Amino acid sequence: MRLVIHNLTQYDFNTYRCIAKNSLGETDGSIRLYGKAEFSFMHVHLN
Fold first, then answer.
1. Which residues pair with 17 in a beta bridge?
2. pLDDT tens column, 7-44
3. Is 27 exposed, middle or buried (0-12, 13-18, 19+ CB in 10 A)?
């Protein structure tokens, strides 16, 4: 899973959740993004 945010602002700081489901089962993951909006973009990789 990957979360890409371009032109990061203070409103992007939040909790993001991903849910994947298929015939073999299901899984989910979440990430809480917090900090200062000083970046032009941010890549977050979830494993």
1. 30
2. 888 889 999 999 999 999 999 999 899 887 665 566 66
3. exposed
For 20, the token pair is 């994947």
More confident call, 47 vs 17: 17
Q: List the domain range (segments joined by +) for residue 24.
A: 2-45
Number of domains into which the chain is organized: 1
Instruction: Report yes or no: 44 and 3 within 8 Å, Cβ to Cβ.
Output: yes
pTM over 0.90: no
Across the chain, the runs of DSSP E, i.e. the strands, are 2-6, 15-22, 25-32, 41-45
Which of the 8 DSSP states describes residue 35? S
Which amino acid, 30?
Answer: S
